[in-house]
Specification:
single chain, Rossmann fold, 8 helices, 18% strand, P-loop_NTPase, GMP kinase activity
Amino acid sequence: MSSERPRGLLLVVSSPSGAGKTTLCNRLRQEFPSIGFSVSYTTREPRPGETDGVEYHFVSGERFQEMAADDEFAEYAMVHGNMYGTAGRLVSTALADGRDILFDIDFQGGRQLRRSFPEEVVLVFILPPSLRELERRLRRRATDSDEVIAQRLKVARSELAHYDEYDFLIVNDELERAYDALRAVYVSALHRRSRQAAVAKQLIEGQEELPW
């Protein structure tokens, strides 16, 4: 009898800076602690309160280039002047073990993962209710200069132009409503036919209990 195990799910959540994806992702991880989180490698400097290996793996530009040359990344891209990348070994191991992974990456990384893992990737884009509201949120954080905020808004416009590469678009105009939508996407994706086909096959073959 077959003992095929469902493969893991790769849930990619992207948004312009300030649209609220970090808060939404943290909520999802709290409710579903079994979902892993991809800790990216980056060449940017740690911000106050960040810990190496928790928010990011902080590496030098030289080390990042060495890893890229050795094909150690499942995806990597330049974002806001710094390099970010996802360890390929993390992705392949999670998929083989049937573990789900949450990614907080931009459209470039999502595009690369979709190209490599078309059956396992679900792409979600978090939209701000308006660019004016996005600017207000960025200013409320009080962490960036006017020049940096202006640049982030410019980048946001270019990122929004890639909305059609995503499977789901969620407007974060109200946190609870946006989270309910993200949660619904994740739970629905877990029950896609491509993921649960092994269960149906087990039943057809007469296996009473699944081996996992």
